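Dear colleagues,

As part of the handover before I leave the project, I'm documenting each prediction I ran so the next person doesn't have to rerun anything. This entry is a single chain, and its sequence is reproduced below.
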Amino acid sequence: MRQPRLSSVIERRLLVNYRVAPDAAARLLPGPLRPQLVHGYAVAGICLLRLGHVRPAWAPKAFGLRSENAAHRIAVEWDGQDGVESGVYIPRRDTASRLNVWAGGRLFPGEHGRAHFEVHETPGQLRVALATWDGDTRVDVTVEPSDELRGSELFADLAEASHFFRGGTKGFSATTSGPHLEGMELRAGTWHVEAGRVRSAASSFFDDPAAFPSGSATLDCALIMRDVAASWRPLPAMASEREARPAD
């Protein structure tokens, strides 16, 4: 069945980014993907995404749905037909929406787990916490908007960070249906991000010493995107050279 292109509004997209030892990131990737390096580090993180007006591109905006979502992601590159391409590998997707859990991998690419979200937003602070229903993953992040990007060892300034993430709009994830990766591409009508200052961040994924030995994953920076019209285009499946653990 042909999967439809989706339209939506990114009401809030919070990217919490970690600089990661390349060997630690590589262990989590299926071939043919490899870590995309910045100043010798792999780049990984959590995308905490609230989408509004999600619907097939042909449907009126009034029929769209709203949901809280999370994706753990690793910046990757691979050899495409026209040279090296870049994007993200998503080892885990979670959502508060029962419909997204059912439709992911069926009506659109990307299988989802179910999670409970707590969100508190004020003009000066944003807190997003989640706990997955399977008990495997917990996240609790508090970020304040900032006038500039401070303290990052990955990016010199906000413009450099924005340019990097704008180039990573193709996302691939494992699937339970076979040895291939499902893909989805984000196409934003405009691209504008704000810097964030992380006040606290806890992640059972990045704090797991089995996946990330001590010192191999360090919190680096946060970026915020708000109120951006966006569409999501299914990509052709990518053959996987070795099996990766799909989202639960």
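The two ends are 23 Å apart (CA to CA). Residues 158-166 form the longest helix (9 residues).

All the best with the project,
I.
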